[in-house]
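Quick note —
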Amino acid sequence: MRRVALPVAALFVLLLISGCGDQGGGAAGDSGRITSRGLFPAFDPHKERYVSRCGRGAAPIEIDAPPGTRVRVGSQGGISGAVSIRTSTAPGSDFPIEVVGRGRSRTYRVRCLPPDFPAWRFESHRPAPPGFFVVSFKAAHDARPWVIVFDDEGVPRWWFNPPTRVLWGQVLGNGNLVWARSFGDGYGLDPRMAHEIRSPAGKLLRLVQTQGAIIDGHEYRELRNGNVLVDAYVPEAADLRRVGGPKRAAIVSAEVQELDPQGRELWHWNSRGHIGLGETGRWWHDVLSNPRRRLHGRETFDPVHINSIDPRGRGEVVISTRHTDAVYGIRRDDGEIRWKLGGSKTGKSLRIVGDPANRPLGGQHDARIGSDGRLSIYDNGKDRPRSPRVAFYRLDLPHREARYLGQLNDPEVRRSHCCGSARELPGGGWLVSWGDNPLVSAFDSRDRLAFRLHLAASTFRAVPAPPGATSVQALDHGMEAMEESRRPAATVERSG
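Predicted structure written out below.
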């Protein structure tokens, strides 16, 4: 195997001397017989953009062209057969690959991953619905945080290193990205908390915070009218002696706010007076033994712990609260709870029909109303005798029932203490983050496993991009803009 070193921005040319067909235009055709190692995805003549690990310590890119094909690197002469290529292209930058045949050519581009880009492994089982999704994590305690956009083939198409920890992120409908800052406090106790909205070029566009309370990072739900639903944790006092706590305790209630694009509050709801302290039930031991300290040092207890918000039609909002093992439907016009699924029984509880689980929810996350009206819940199954699952229900409020429709499981996942998400894919199927397991699974429209993405660390959520919100080209242009902003500007000195 010939080894060739490429300078920064070197030109890599494959000269296809024989057998180039017309499929796909240009130099496609027989270039499909080219095999590669170190390119993500593997070389395909119909795909223009790739990523690769580059630089010192990285394995070389290996190209094996079909017989009769020559590979030319920069100004070097043509080389036949297998070629091993090392490039000194800077991390974040890209270099071109040009495939030429029958007098025509097509250019491909390879963007270099940073040297500390976290390891990942993609396991494909069957074709997945096309699209993109966002994950976020720190690969180690002392590592920098990452926000990464993957495509449906497990290829990282965009990445960013925020200055703070990140709880989770997503692509917005207009192609920008948003993520929740995190300061390790578990919920909204730090006034620096905010949702950062950034362009694909990494530019900070604005910060979103709640009115009258510190924003929490668990939810940022775009609505069709351009507004967003977010959550906050509002401090108050409570007597917790009957559950084994102090007489004058500081607790936080859960609040939902609807904000317009200018950040003005249009509607809010608070759990105070609607979700009783008795509904925390089995969670009181955990809540009392794991208080958080506000900036002024006082211990604060979290008996509700809201972790998702989703609209159900125009008149209702659905929330998930981990520390009650329950999901609630809230009527917007008067704030009353219409129904409750899971947790301790109240006058609002629905009868669950057909669920094989005796206790349907355990520390659940990410309750969503799907395009078909189904309620989906990522059920962690914490301290329940079962594996984590995505459970589906059909609500029948006139009959006060929730009918179990089925569930999704991944046999590789046995437990899930916290976190997690289950989101409907735009092309059909589901994308699941299995909480504190470093695994994302996709299922097709027939509930069959499509792929697994093994990560270096767990991601709180894995969130699909809205249909048409972004593209490989748009994400790559954002990466290029970030790289351009890092390059030192040229200076001109006057002579004499």
